[in-house]
From TrEMBL:
PANTHER family assigned: ABC TRANSPORTER ATP-BINDING PROTEIN ALBC-RELATED
Name under which the protein is recorded: Cu-processing system ATP-binding protein
PROSITE patterns hit by this protein: ABC_TRANSPORTER_1 (PS00211), ABC_TRANSPORTER_2 (PS50893)
Keyword annotations: ATP-binding, Nucleotide-binding, Transport
One Gene Ontology term of the molecular function aspect: ATP binding
Pfam families recorded: ABC_tran
Domain ABC transporter: 6-229
Domain of life, source organism: Bacteria
Coiled-coil ranges from the UniProt annotation: none
Length: 298
C-alpha cells in the first residue's frame, strides 16, 4: 500500500461566508480502508461530493490517481454508494445492473454479482418491491461492477440487518484485497472500529484526527479500564491497595493512563490468590471520537 489512489491536499470549500471544509488533507492508498467520521454537518458529504467532482473547490486539489475529479478517467475509476440509493422502480435488479454494465461498456457477470451481494433470489423482481436493505445491496453490486480504484461508501450499512452488515464488510475486505482504496463515511463506530485500517475525523470542516486506532489511542492518552474481581471479602483490601473504586461486592475498577497501565497490572498480579479475575478494556473508538470531535479539539 505505497501508492496513493486518492489524494486530498489542503482542500477548502466555502459556501458564501461559511467555510464548509477548511484545509483538509487526506490520502488513501490502494488497498486501504479508511473511515471518515464526524457529526452531521462536519463536512463528510461535502468532501465526498468534491471527490466525485460534483462540488467545485474553493482552494486545494484532489486527485484520483493522476486524474482530476469529474474527469472521464476519474469517473471510470471511482465508485460511489450513497446512503439513500435510488433506482428505477419498474426495472428488475438484473435489468438495472445490465443497464449499468452497458453504459460502462463492459460484459459483466450480472447474475454472479447479484448473487455475491445476496440478491440471487430477487434479481428478477422489480426494484419497486425491494426493501431499503435490498436496494443498498443492489447499490453495492453497482460498486463492484467496475472494479474501481477508489470506492466511496456513504453510510453503506444503512438499512441492513446484522448478518447483511457482516456480508457487506466481507465484500469491502475483498475490494481492498484487490487494490481498491475504500473511504467509508459512517456513524456506525463499532463497525468501522473493527473493519478499517485508519480513522479520519472531521469537526466543523476541519480534520482533527487521522491515524490508526492504536496511534490515536496513544496520542489521546485516554485511560484503560481495569476491572478486578477479588476473592471472598477482599474487595475492600484490593481497592485500598490499588486506589481503585468498588463496583459491587467483589469487583474493583481502576482507570490507568497508558504510561501507568503496566505498573497497575504488576501490582494486581503481586496480590496473588486474592485476585480471581481481571478484565482490561482499552479506550474504544466511541471514546476516541468523543475526545477528538469535542469542542476545541485540535
Amino acid at each position: 500500500m505505497t501508492d496513493s489512489a486518492l489524494t486530498i491536499e489542503h482542500v477548502r470549500k466555502d459556501r458564501g461566508k461559511t467555510t464548509v471544509l477548511d484545509d483538509v488533507s487526506l490520502r488513501v492508498a490502494s488497498g486501504e480502508r479508511v473511515a471518515l467520521l464526524g457529526h452531521n454537518g462536519a463536512g463528510k458529504s461535502t468532501l465526498i461530493k468534491t471527490i466525485l467532482g460534483l462540488t467545485p473547490l474553493t482552494d486545494g486539489q484532489i486527485r484520483i490517481g493522476d486524474a482530476k475529479p469529474g474527469s472521464a478517467v476519474a469517473r471510470r475509476t471511482t465508485a460511489y454508494l450513497p446512503e439513500a440509493v435510488s433506482f428505477h422502480p419498474a426495472l428488475t435488479g438484473r435489468e438495472q445492473l445490465q443497464l449499468f454494465a452497458r453504459l460502462d461498456g463492459q460484459k459483466a457477470d450480472v447474475p454472479g454479482l447479484l448473487d455475491r451481494v445476496g440478491l440471487r433470489d430477487a434479481m428478477d423482481r422489480r426494484i419497486g418491491a425491494y426493501s431499503k436493505g435490498m436496494r443498498q445491496r443492489l447499490g453495492l453490486a453497482q460498486v463492484l461492477l467496475g472494479n474501481p480504484k477508489v470506492a466511496l461508501l456513504d453510510e453503506p450499512t444503512s438499512g441492513l440487518d446484522p448478518i447483511s452488515r457482516q456480508d457487506l464488510y466481507a465484500i469491502i475486505d475483498e475490494l481492498a484485497a484487490n487494490g481498491t482504496a475504500v473511504l467509508i463515511a459512517s456513524h456506525a463506530l463499532t463497525e468501522v472500529e473493527a473493519q478499517t485500517d485508519r480513522i479520519a475525523i472531521l469537526r466543523k470542516g476541519v480534520k482533527v484526527a487521522d491515524d490508526t486506532l492504536q496511534n490515536l489511542s496513544a496520542q489521546a492518552g485516554l485511560p484503560t479500564r481495569l476491572r478486578i474481581r477479588a476473592s471472598g471479602d477482599n474487595a475492600d483490601q484490593v481497592a485500598e491497595a490499588t486506589g481503585g473504586t468498588r463496583i459491587n461486592g467483589v469487583a474493583v475498577e481502576i482507570l490507568c493512563t497508558p504510561d501507568r497501565k503496566m505498573d497497575a497490572l504488576r501490582r494486581v498480579a503481586a496480590m496473588g490468590e486474592v485476585i480471581t479475575d481481571i478484565e482490561m478494556t482499552p479506550p474504544r473508538l466511541e471514546d476516541l471520537y468523543r475526545h477528538y470531535a469535542r469542542e476545541g479539539a485540535q
